[in-house]
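Comment thread on ticket #2218

A.B. wrote:
> Attaching the input chain for the structure job we discussed in standup.
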Amino acid sequence: MAARQAPRPCSIADTLALVGEKYSLLVLREVCLGNGRFDQLVRNIGAPRDILATRLRRLLDAGILTKRAYSERPQRFEYRPTQAGLELEPVLMTLMAWGDRHLHPGDDRPMVIEHHCGHDLVPQVVCESCGERVRHDDLKAHPQSPGWTVTGPSAA
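C.D. wrote:
> Ran it. Output below, let me know if you need it in another format.
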C-alpha cells in the first residue's frame, strides 16, 4: 500500500481550518452586523448553544473575535470582530454576492448591503497595484512551497 502523502501547504486550507466549520462564518456575519450577544447569535444563526459556544471559543483563540462584558450580574459578554475578523468581511460580502447571483436570482435577495455612496454593494476583487478587476484568465500561480504543481492556464 502506498504511503499517504501529507497535504501540501495552503493558505486557503489553513483559513478554512479556522473559519470553515459550520456556523463559523455565520458567527462572523452576525458580529460584523453588530449582533454580538450570545442570545442574538443563537436566534439569528440557529446553531445549538453548545456548538455555538465552541465556535466562539475557537474564533476568540484565533484572534478573529474579541469579547467584552456588557453585564456583570449575571456576567454576559458581547463579541466583536478584531482587525483580523474585519479583514474577513470582504469574503462574506463576496460569498453573499455569489449566493445572490446563483441561489437567489432577481430580486429574491435575503439582504442588501448598501455602500456609503448610497448604492447597493457589488463586491469585486481588484488588483491592489493596477486597480483592474481580477479575471481568472489574467492570473498566474507561482507556487512557493514544495509539493505544488500547477498545470493549465494558471501555470507560471
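A.B. wrote:
> Thanks. Noting for the ticket: The chain is about 35% helix and 10% strand.
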